[in-house]
Amino acid sequence: MADLIIVPGGGVCPDGGVPEWVRVRLDRALELRRDEPILLLSALTVHKPAPVGGDGWPIFEAVAGARYLLERGLDASHILTEIASYDTIGNAFFARIIHTEFGGWRRLTVVNSAFHMARTEAIFRWVFGLTPDRGYQLTFETVPDAGMPPEDLAIRYEHEARRLERVRELRERITSMADLYRFLYHDHDCYSTQGLLKARERDERLERVY
How many CB atoms lie within 10 A of CB 150? Predict the structure, then answer.
């Protein structure tokens, strides 16, 4: 039995709702849940501009997921959000340093779509196994791919395979949380100052599937 259920983000619809593949993840998290909280991950994606609500504020992926869980009847006191991350490595890093390290949760179940699960599992096992070792126990629950046209799903699988190779390279040289912190804030385009100041390169193929 888990202490915490974790659901990575997967985009936001133009109307502020969650896409079908994210709904499937959230529904499965509700099915698995007993009394443990559900942690929703991700601020935004770097692959396309953030949707903006009627109030003019960007709609965070974790907040969109929280609204969905509230609509399904889950009380807000059982929902946690992480809105500091912009990619899957950040998902795991911030889930650990913001929530699990201080919340005391050590048995974690991560729920994600099939197209994203191989990279998610590789990253979460790596990040939650980094020094200092807290004795985390991770399990992974894969849900079916849903709501994405076949041609877009093929793009996602291609993207995931490329990024998984990069994760394997990083895992060989980054062996502590301190190492990962330095990598994120000195070298990673999503978090380092140099990366944040770079002009974004549009990839319309990826924009369709985030």
Answer: 8
The residue behind tokens 């709501």 is 147
pLDDT-based confidence at residue 108 (cuts at 50, 70, 90):
very high
Residue 56 to residue 184: CA distance in whole angstroms: 29
The pLDDT, as a whole number, for residue 166 is 96
pTM: 0.95
Over residues 114-129, the pLDDT tens digits come to: 999 999 999 999 999 9
Other C-beta atoms within 10 Å of 186: how many?
12
